[in-house]
Amino acid sequence: MIKKFDFLVIGSGIAGMSFALKVANKGQVALVCKTELEEANTYFAQGGIASVTNTLVDNFNKHIEDTMIAGDSISDRRVVEKVVREAPLQIDELISWGVHFDRNDQGEFDLHREGGHSEFRILHHKDNTGAEIQASLIQAVKEHRNITVLENHFAVEILTQHHLGVTVTRQTSDIKCYGAYILNQKTGKVETYLSKITMIATGGIGAIYQTTTNPLVATGDGIALVYRAKGTVKDMEFVQFHPTALYHSGDRPSYLITEAMRGYGAVLRTGDGREFMRKYDRRLSLAPRDIVARAIDNEMKNRGDDCVYLDVTHEDAEETRKHFPNIYEKCFSLGIDITKDYIPVAPAAHYLCGGIKVDLDGQSSIERLYA
Question: Which one of 289, 294, 303, 321 is the catalytic residue?
Fold first, then answer.
């Protein structure tokens, strides 16, 4: 069966759903999700989103420089500047779709600080920001009459001239995307979806690692789709490990302990209570993630330990429970009272920095295919 849409969106996290909402007034959208809408990396994100909002102390140049430093100046500065400068407008759009970020008594955003940031600029919703965003976007998507949600559908192959009998190689300069073959997992049938524009928003590859904070659906399917279609992928070796996933043997995925907890005042310690980050970086526990993760890994290997510990016991107990209610409940269910006990943590695969190569407009090396 052949189905036609103006836009075909493969992936249903914040990227896929926000793109669907942005273009839904311009045509019919098919939103493809290989399991259910709730199962996405977005849902598991805790800490929040970085954006310059308090211009009394913060500005775009600070945010850009923080980002370049954290990326060891390997990041494409043009992309960094674009993302940073456009972030406030994207925050406004999320709010227009129903997302609620925490505010203080004056009605201003209650900003957190995370590793690598020189200012407090993290907008959040308690300690489950991703779940708030995912739930709000799901509601907005389901209410839009131009968006067709296809749960339990799996993208099998990108359609190009190859499917019209034309030889396509990596040297072909004008590869075009016409849609995709999609497997309906309930019927077992592969259907043809034709589209004017196709968007790949399938997330990263965390689930190929034994220890990861990602849901087990994060297996890099979209990247593989594009690579098989002779599209260009880039920087696949850059995989970010989050320094502080809750260490609980057998858990997969690992439960994330947000970086915002270190911004709040938590300190990394070894099992004997010794603070160790001062040996590695002057920013201590708020150094960028790669530095902190390597430091933790080094301590674990030198000591023969399975984990290190995050200590927030010196902070006000009521404030800790208020800011991190879900982390408190999760740890308490395992017999850990974070207001009194250290939290066992270890690094876990968290974020793929590489993937499908695109330009500043998100256009891949294949025409009409974006990511």
Answer: 289
